Amino acid sequence: MKFDSVTIKDIAKALNLSTSTVSRALRGSYEISPETKKLVLEYAEKINYRPNPIALSLKERRTRAIGIVVSEIANNYFSQAINGIESIAYNRGYHVIITQSHESQEREKVNVQHLASRGVDGLLVSLSSESEEIPYLTELHEKGLPIVFFDRITNEIDTHKVVANNYLGAYHATEHLIYQDFKKIAHITSSPHLSITKERLEGYKDALAKHKIPFDENLVKYCHRGGMISQEVEDALTTLFKGKVKPDAIFTASDRLTTVCFGLLKRMKMKRADVGFTGFTNTQLGDLFSPPLTVIRQPAFEIGQTAIELLIQIIESKRPVTHFETRQLETSLIIRESSMKK
Protein backbone atom coordinates (compact mmCIF):
# COMPACT_ATOMS: atom_id res chain seq x y z
CA MET A 1 0.00 0.00 0.00
CA LYS A 2 1.48 3.33 -1.06
CA PHE A 3 1.91 6.04 1.58
CA ASP A 4 0.61 9.39 0.38
CA SER A 5 1.98 12.31 2.38
CA VAL A 6 0.29 15.70 2.56
CA THR A 7 1.98 18.36 0.41
CA ILE A 8 1.95 22.14 0.19
CA LYS A 9 -0.15 21.78 -2.96
CA ASP A 10 -2.85 19.96 -0.94
CA ILE A 11 -2.98 22.78 1.61
CA ALA A 12 -3.09 25.42 -1.12
CA LYS A 13 -5.96 23.66 -2.90
CA ALA A 14 -7.96 23.23 0.31
CA LEU A 15 -7.55 26.89 1.32
CA ASN A 16 -7.81 28.32 -2.21
CA LEU A 17 -4.35 29.87 -1.94
CA SER A 18 -1.28 29.72 -4.16
CA THR A 19 1.47 27.24 -3.29
CA SER A 20 3.97 30.09 -2.93
CA THR A 21 1.70 31.83 -0.40
CA VAL A 22 1.35 28.61 1.63
CA SER A 23 5.12 28.02 1.48
CA ARG A 24 5.92 31.54 2.70
CA ALA A 25 3.27 31.29 5.43
CA LEU A 26 4.77 28.04 6.73
CA ARG A 27 8.18 29.73 6.83
CA GLY A 28 6.77 32.69 8.73
CA SER A 29 7.58 35.19 5.99
CA TYR A 30 6.91 38.87 6.76
CA GLU A 31 5.28 39.12 3.31
CA ILE A 32 2.25 37.12 4.48
CA SER A 33 -0.43 38.69 6.68
CA PRO A 34 -0.89 37.37 10.24
CA GLU A 35 -4.42 36.21 9.36
CA THR A 36 -3.21 34.10 6.42
CA LYS A 37 -0.34 32.67 8.46
CA LYS A 38 -2.76 31.66 11.21
CA LEU A 39 -5.12 30.06 8.68
CA VAL A 40 -2.35 28.05 7.01
CA LEU A 41 -0.64 26.95 10.24
CA GLU A 42 -3.87 25.84 11.89
CA TYR A 43 -4.89 23.84 8.83
CA ALA A 44 -1.40 22.29 8.52
CA GLU A 45 -1.57 21.21 12.16
CA LYS A 46 -5.08 19.82 11.69
CA ILE A 47 -4.03 17.54 8.82
CA ASN A 48 -0.66 16.67 10.43
CA TYR A 49 1.43 18.23 7.66
CA ARG A 50 5.18 17.65 7.89
CA PRO A 51 7.79 19.10 5.48
CA ASN A 52 9.25 16.61 3.01
CA PRO A 53 12.82 15.95 4.19
CA ILE A 54 14.00 15.00 0.69
CA ALA A 55 12.67 18.21 -0.78
CA LEU A 56 14.26 20.21 2.04
CA SER A 57 17.61 18.49 1.55
CA LEU A 58 17.58 19.29 -2.16
CA LYS A 59 16.80 22.92 -1.41
CA GLU A 60 19.32 23.34 1.40
CA ARG A 61 21.88 20.94 -0.08
CA ARG A 62 21.94 19.26 3.32
CA THR A 63 20.23 16.14 4.61
CA ARG A 64 20.58 17.00 8.32
CA ALA A 65 21.74 13.41 8.78
CA ILE A 66 25.00 12.35 10.41
CA GLY A 67 26.63 8.96 9.97
CA ILE A 68 28.20 7.13 12.90
CA VAL A 69 30.73 4.35 12.35
CA VAL A 70 31.67 2.22 15.39
CA SER A 71 32.80 -1.35 15.95
CA GLU A 72 29.80 -2.51 17.97
CA ILE A 73 26.72 -0.80 19.41
CA ALA A 74 26.44 -3.40 22.20
CA ASN A 75 29.84 -2.32 23.51
CA ASN A 76 29.26 -0.39 26.76
CA TYR A 77 31.58 2.42 25.72
CA PHE A 78 30.06 2.94 22.28
CA SER A 79 26.45 2.72 23.44
CA GLN A 80 27.15 5.51 25.93
CA ALA A 81 29.05 7.58 23.36
CA ILE A 82 26.13 7.23 20.92
CA ASN A 83 23.74 8.42 23.64
CA GLY A 84 25.93 11.50 24.02
CA ILE A 85 25.93 12.09 20.27
CA GLU A 86 22.15 11.78 20.04
CA SER A 87 21.58 14.09 23.01
CA ILE A 88 23.15 16.94 21.02
CA ALA A 89 22.25 15.96 17.45
CA TYR A 90 18.48 15.83 17.85
CA ASN A 91 18.40 19.13 19.75
CA ARG A 92 20.28 20.71 16.84
CA GLY A 93 17.90 19.29 14.25
CA TYR A 94 20.06 16.38 13.04
CA HIS A 95 19.27 12.68 12.79
CA VAL A 96 21.90 9.99 13.15
CA ILE A 97 22.47 6.81 11.15
CA ILE A 98 24.44 4.23 13.14
CA THR A 99 26.55 1.51 11.50
CA GLN A 100 28.72 -1.26 12.96
CA SER A 101 32.00 -2.58 11.56
CA HIS A 102 32.23 -5.57 13.94
CA GLU A 103 36.00 -4.90 13.86
CA SER A 104 36.11 -5.59 10.10
CA GLN A 105 37.82 -3.03 7.86
CA GLU A 106 35.91 -4.25 4.82
CA ARG A 107 32.59 -3.76 6.59
CA GLU A 108 33.74 -0.36 7.82
CA LYS A 109 34.59 0.63 4.22
CA VAL A 110 31.17 -0.53 2.95
CA ASN A 111 29.42 1.36 5.77
CA VAL A 112 31.34 4.57 5.07
CA GLN A 113 30.63 4.40 1.35
CA HIS A 114 26.95 3.70 1.95
CA LEU A 115 26.62 6.64 4.33
CA ALA A 116 28.38 8.93 1.86
CA SER A 117 26.07 7.78 -0.95
CA ARG A 118 23.09 8.64 1.25
CA GLY A 119 24.37 12.21 1.37
CA VAL A 120 25.05 12.50 5.10
CA ASP A 121 26.29 15.92 6.18
CA GLY A 122 29.23 14.44 8.07
CA LEU A 123 30.73 11.34 9.71
CA LEU A 124 31.71 10.44 13.27
CA VAL A 125 34.19 7.57 13.09
CA SER A 126 35.86 5.22 15.54
CA LEU A 127 38.09 2.91 13.52
CA SER A 128 37.83 -0.89 13.48
CA SER A 129 40.66 -2.97 14.91
CA GLU A 130 41.64 -3.97 11.34
CA SER A 131 41.78 -0.42 9.98
CA GLU A 132 45.31 0.81 9.40
CA GLU A 133 45.32 2.36 5.92
CA ILE A 134 42.05 4.19 5.28
CA PRO A 135 41.96 5.59 1.71
CA TYR A 136 38.14 5.36 1.62
CA LEU A 137 37.99 7.96 4.41
CA THR A 138 40.88 10.07 3.14
CA GLU A 139 39.26 10.43 -0.29
CA LEU A 140 35.94 11.55 1.17
CA HIS A 141 37.65 14.04 3.46
CA GLU A 142 39.63 15.50 0.54
CA LYS A 143 36.35 15.93 -1.36
CA GLY A 144 35.00 18.03 1.51
CA LEU A 145 32.96 15.61 3.62
CA PRO A 146 33.28 16.67 7.28
CA ILE A 147 34.73 13.86 9.43
CA VAL A 148 35.49 13.79 13.16
CA PHE A 149 37.25 10.85 14.80
CA PHE A 150 36.67 9.72 18.37
CA ASP A 151 38.20 7.04 20.60
CA ARG A 152 40.18 5.19 17.88
CA ILE A 153 41.73 7.92 15.79
CA THR A 154 44.22 8.33 12.95
CA ASN A 155 46.95 10.80 12.06
CA GLU A 156 46.29 10.35 8.32
CA ILE A 157 43.50 12.93 8.29
CA ASP A 158 43.80 16.45 9.67
CA THR A 159 40.51 17.00 11.46
CA HIS A 160 38.99 17.23 14.95
CA LYS A 161 39.56 14.24 17.23
CA VAL A 162 38.12 13.41 20.65
CA VAL A 163 39.75 10.87 22.95
CA ALA A 164 40.10 9.80 26.54
CA ASN A 165 43.43 10.21 28.32
CA ASN A 166 44.39 6.63 27.49
CA TYR A 167 47.98 6.95 28.62
CA LEU A 168 47.14 8.22 32.10
CA GLY A 169 44.25 5.80 32.53
CA ALA A 170 46.54 2.85 31.81
CA TYR A 171 49.30 4.31 33.96
CA HIS A 172 47.01 4.67 36.98
CA ALA A 173 45.53 1.19 36.51
CA THR A 174 48.95 -0.44 36.34
CA GLU A 175 50.34 1.57 39.24
CA HIS A 176 47.31 0.65 41.35
CA LEU A 177 48.05 -3.05 40.78
CA ILE A 178 51.69 -2.45 41.70
CA TYR A 179 50.63 -0.75 44.94
CA GLN A 180 48.63 -3.92 45.73
CA ASP A 181 51.98 -5.77 45.54
CA PHE A 182 51.43 -7.38 42.13
CA LYS A 183 54.69 -7.59 40.21
CA LYS A 184 53.99 -9.78 37.16
CA ILE A 185 51.23 -7.80 35.49
CA ALA A 186 50.05 -9.08 32.12
CA HIS A 187 48.52 -6.72 29.57
CA ILE A 188 45.86 -7.99 27.16
CA THR A 189 45.17 -5.49 24.41
CA SER A 190 43.84 -4.99 20.87
CA SER A 191 45.56 -4.61 17.48
CA PRO A 192 49.04 -3.06 17.88
CA HIS A 193 48.43 -0.30 15.29
CA LEU A 194 45.35 1.17 17.00
CA SER A 195 45.82 4.54 18.69
CA ILE A 196 44.24 3.34 21.94
CA THR A 197 46.52 0.26 21.98
CA LYS A 198 49.67 2.34 21.61
CA GLU A 199 48.67 4.92 24.22
CA ARG A 200 47.54 2.39 26.82
CA LEU A 201 50.60 0.22 26.28
CA GLU A 202 52.84 3.24 26.90
CA GLY A 203 51.01 4.04 30.14
CA TYR A 204 51.42 0.43 31.29
CA LYS A 205 55.14 0.37 30.43
CA ASP A 206 55.89 3.72 32.09
CA ALA A 207 54.16 2.68 35.32
CA LEU A 208 56.31 -0.46 35.42
CA ALA A 209 59.44 1.58 34.73
CA LYS A 210 58.66 4.08 37.50
CA HIS A 211 58.52 1.22 40.01
CA LYS A 212 61.61 -0.47 38.53
CA ILE A 213 59.69 -3.53 37.31
CA PRO A 214 61.26 -4.86 34.09
CA PHE A 215 58.97 -4.85 31.06
CA ASP A 216 58.43 -8.39 29.76
CA GLU A 217 57.03 -8.51 26.23
CA ASN A 218 55.85 -12.09 26.89
CA LEU A 219 53.28 -10.64 29.30
CA VAL A 220 51.69 -8.54 26.54
CA LYS A 221 49.11 -10.31 24.35
CA TYR A 222 47.39 -8.76 21.33
CA CYS A 223 43.83 -9.75 20.43
CA HIS A 224 43.38 -8.44 16.89
CA ARG A 225 39.57 -8.60 16.97
CA GLY A 226 39.39 -6.73 20.28
CA GLY A 227 37.61 -9.45 22.23
CA MET A 228 34.80 -10.04 19.72
CA ILE A 229 36.12 -13.59 19.27
CA SER A 230 36.30 -15.13 22.73
CA GLN A 231 38.62 -17.91 21.54
CA GLU A 232 41.25 -15.28 20.79
CA VAL A 233 41.12 -14.07 24.40
CA GLU A 234 41.08 -17.63 25.75
CA ASP A 235 44.19 -18.44 23.70
CA ALA A 236 45.92 -15.36 25.12
CA LEU A 237 45.11 -16.40 28.69
CA THR A 238 46.18 -20.00 28.09
CA THR A 239 49.52 -18.85 26.67
CA LEU A 240 50.09 -16.54 29.62
CA PHE A 241 49.45 -19.16 32.27
CA LYS A 242 51.50 -21.79 30.47
CA GLY A 243 54.48 -19.49 30.11
CA LYS A 244 57.63 -19.50 32.19
CA VAL A 245 56.61 -16.28 33.91
CA LYS A 246 52.99 -16.62 35.04
CA PRO A 247 51.12 -13.37 35.70
CA ASP A 248 49.85 -12.50 39.15
CA ALA A 249 47.59 -9.75 37.74
CA ILE A 250 45.95 -8.84 34.44
CA PHE A 251 45.24 -5.43 32.99
CA THR A 252 42.93 -5.38 29.94
CA ALA A 253 42.84 -2.49 27.50
CA SER A 254 39.28 -2.28 26.16
CA ASP A 255 35.64 -2.70 27.10
CA ARG A 256 34.92 -6.04 25.44
CA LEU A 257 38.34 -7.47 26.29
CA THR A 258 37.70 -6.69 29.95
CA THR A 259 34.30 -8.37 30.25
CA VAL A 260 35.24 -11.38 28.08
CA CYS A 261 38.55 -11.92 29.85
CA PHE A 262 37.03 -11.64 33.33
CA GLY A 263 34.34 -14.16 32.40
CA LEU A 264 36.91 -16.59 30.99
CA LEU A 265 38.99 -16.39 34.16
CA LYS A 266 35.90 -17.43 36.12
CA ARG A 267 35.31 -20.36 33.77
CA MET A 268 38.96 -21.39 34.09
CA LYS A 269 38.28 -21.59 37.84
CA MET A 270 41.05 -19.21 38.80
CA LYS A 271 41.08 -18.86 42.57
CA ARG A 272 40.37 -15.43 44.05
CA ALA A 273 43.94 -15.11 45.36
CA ASP A 274 45.53 -16.24 42.10
CA VAL A 275 45.27 -13.16 39.98
CA GLY A 276 44.45 -9.48 40.37
CA PHE A 277 42.39 -7.84 37.66
CA THR A 278 41.49 -4.44 36.27
CA GLY A 279 40.57 -3.12 32.86
CA PHE A 280 39.07 -0.42 30.69
CA THR A 281 35.28 -0.81 30.67
CA ASN A 282 32.23 1.39 30.96
CA THR A 283 29.92 -1.33 32.20
CA GLN A 284 27.39 -0.13 34.77
CA LEU A 285 27.49 -3.54 36.45
CA GLY A 286 31.06 -3.60 37.72
CA ASP A 287 29.98 -3.89 41.34
CA LEU A 288 27.77 -6.89 40.51
CA PHE A 289 30.65 -9.03 39.23
CA SER A 290 32.14 -11.59 41.59
CA PRO A 291 34.45 -10.27 42.85
CA PRO A 292 33.40 -6.66 42.11
CA LEU A 293 35.41 -5.32 39.19
CA THR A 294 38.03 -2.57 39.35
CA VAL A 295 37.71 -0.51 36.17
CA ILE A 296 39.11 2.43 34.26
CA ARG A 297 36.04 4.33 33.15
CA GLN A 298 36.03 6.69 30.19
CA PRO A 299 33.70 9.71 29.93
CA ALA A 300 32.02 8.12 26.89
CA PHE A 301 28.83 10.21 26.99
CA GLU A 302 30.84 13.45 27.14
CA ILE A 303 33.19 12.23 24.38
CA GLY A 304 30.15 11.63 22.17
CA GLN A 305 28.76 15.08 22.94
CA THR A 306 32.09 16.78 22.24
CA ALA A 307 32.58 14.90 18.96
CA ILE A 308 29.14 15.83 17.58
CA GLU A 309 29.53 19.47 18.63
CA LEU A 310 32.83 19.70 16.73
CA LEU A 311 31.33 17.99 13.68
CA ILE A 312 28.35 20.35 13.58
CA GLN A 313 30.75 23.30 13.82
CA ILE A 314 32.45 22.09 10.62
CA ILE A 315 29.14 21.39 8.86
CA GLU A 316 27.63 24.77 9.69
CA SER A 317 30.74 26.90 9.22
CA LYS A 318 30.38 29.58 6.56
CA ARG A 319 34.05 29.20 5.65
CA PRO A 320 36.32 26.15 5.23
CA VAL A 321 37.63 25.00 8.62
CA THR A 322 41.43 24.77 8.62
CA HIS A 323 42.25 24.76 12.33
CA PHE A 324 41.63 21.46 14.10
CA GLU A 325 42.18 20.21 17.64
CA THR A 326 42.38 16.98 19.59
CA ARG A 327 40.24 17.11 22.72
CA GLN A 328 41.34 14.82 25.54
CA LEU A 329 38.99 13.95 28.41
CA GLU A 330 40.14 12.37 31.68
CA THR A 331 39.39 8.81 32.77
CA SER A 332 38.63 7.66 36.31
CA LEU A 333 39.87 4.61 38.21
CA ILE A 334 37.10 2.92 40.21
CA ILE A 335 38.66 0.56 42.72
CA ARG A 336 36.83 -2.58 43.80
CA GLU A 337 37.76 -6.01 45.12
CA SER A 338 39.07 -7.62 41.89
CA SER A 339 42.37 -5.72 42.13
CA MET A 340 42.98 -6.30 45.83
CA LYS A 341 45.60 -8.84 46.84
CA LYS A 342 44.69 -11.27 49.59
Automatic annotation (TrEMBL):
HTH cro/C1-type domain boundaries: 7-50
Record's keyword annotation contains Disulfide bond: no
Protein's name according to its UniProt entry: LacI family transcriptional regulator
Positions of the HTH lacI-type domain: 6-60
MF GO annotations: DNA-binding transcription factor activity; transcription cis-regulatory region binding
Keyword vocabulary terms for this entry: DNA-binding, Transcription, Transcription regulation
InterPro entries in alphabetical order: Cro/C1-type_HTH (IPR001387), HTH_LacI (IPR000843), Lambda_DNA-bd_dom_sf (IPR010982), Peripla_BP/Lac1_sug-bd_dom (IPR001761), Peripla_BP_I (IPR028082)
Pfam family for this entry, one: Peripla_BP_1
